[in-house]
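It is worth pausing here to work through a concrete case rather than discussing structure prediction in the abstract. The textbook approach is simple: state the sequence, then state the predicted structure, then interpret. We follow exactly that order.
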Amino acid sequence: MNCRHCGQPLSLPFLDLGSAPPSNAYLSEAALRAPEVWYPLRLLVCGHCWLVQTEDHAGREALFTEDYAYFSSFSSSWLAHARAYVEDVRTRLGLGTGSTAVEVAANDGYLLQYVQAAGIPCYGIEPTASTAAAARARGIEVLQRFFGAALADELARAGRQADLIVANNVLAHVPDINDFVAGFARLLKPAGVATLEFPHLLRMVQGCQFDTAYHEHYSYLSLTAVQRIFAAGGLALVDVQELPTHGGSLRVWAVRADSLDGHPQTTPEGAQRVRRVLEQEDAAGVRTAQFYADFQFSALRIKDELLSFLLQCRRQGMRVGAYGAAAKGNTLLNFAGVRADLLPYVADRNPAKQGQYLPGSRIPIVDEAGLKADQPERVLVLPWNLREEVAQQLDYVKSWGGRLVVAVPHLKVFEDVAFKQGVLHDEQ
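Step two, the predicted structure:
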C-alpha cells in the first residue's frame, strides 16, 4: 500500500488489531442471523510525510451508510462545545447577515443550529441520510453529498462560496484526503477561513487511545502531517488551538494560500501557536520511527487488563453492564474478544441504537431503563472521553452502590459516580 497523501510505499507499522466489522455497523435482530463483513484493521505510518493511516479495505459508501447511527446532539458536552465555538468565531471573524457559513459533515445540525440562531446564513454538507434528515428537521439546508473538489467547484460556480467553513471530526474520515482538502481552498472566499477539528495523534499515543482506531478513521493526524497536506491542497495554517475534546484534539485555522499575505487572520500570535505545537511534536519524536514503536504493546496491555477485570467480576458473581455504544467501545470489545457472556448489554441514550446489537461482539443495546432495572455493581463507560458527562448522567448508579469503570488508558474503578470538581475520583 502507498501513502494516501504523498504516494510513498508504507512499511512502518503502528497498530494491528486483527480484524473487525465497521465500528458503526450496528446490527438489527434480523441481521444476527446473517454473516457480518469483517475487514483487517491495521495502521501504518508513512516515513516520508508522517501520515498515519489504515490499510484500504472498505470504501466510504460501505462505512457511511443511509442508516448511520452516530448523532452528535446526544452529547450535551459536545453541544456546549459547538455553541461556544459559534459565539467565538462569530466575534473573531465578524460574521453577520451578509456572511455565509458552511459545515462539512454537518451531521444532525448540532452546530449549524447555533449559526442559524445567530442570524448567519448557512448550509450543511452531509452524506448520511439519517443525520441529514435530522438536520433538515431543524430547518437547516443540507446537501446530502460527499465533499471534495468537484462539489466545491460546483458550489463555487453557483455563487455559494463561504466566509467560514467548519469541519469537525471529519478530516480523519475521508479516504482521499488530498481531494477533500483541495475542496476547502476552492469553496472559500478569498478572505474566508476554514476551521477543522480532529483528534491529535500526539495525544492518542500519549494516552494509549488505541480504541480510537477503526475503519471509519482513515487517517490519524499530527499537525506535522496536516500542515504538509494543507499546503499541497492550497491552504495555509494561520493558527491552532489545543482542545480537550476526544481525548485531546486540535482546531486548526486555515486560509487560502493565495490570500495569505495581508489576510486579517494572519497574526504573529497564531503563527507562534502553530510553531509551538510543531515543536511539541518534534520533541516527542513524531518524525521518528521510535515514536510509533510501542503503541501495539499499550493496546495489548489494555486488552489484558479489561479481560482480567471482567473475568474476575464473573468469578465473584458481580454484575457488569456497559454504557455508551460508541465506535471506540466496539474497537475495544472486538480486539479484546469480549462477548455477551462477559458483558451482557450496553445502555445508550440514542434511540437509533437501542434495540440493536454491537457489531462483532453482538452485545445487545438497551435504553437506560434496562440499566436501572439490572442495577449492576460495575458500569463500564466505553466513551471514556465523555466520562464526566456520563458521570453526571449516571449519578443514580450510586443509589445501589454501583461504580463506574473505564479501561483506557488504564483499567480504573471509580470510588463515586458523582461529578466532583470536574473529575472522577479514582478508587484507592
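Step three, interpretation. Residues 418-428 have pLDDT under 50 and may be disordered. The chain is about 30% helix and 20% strand.
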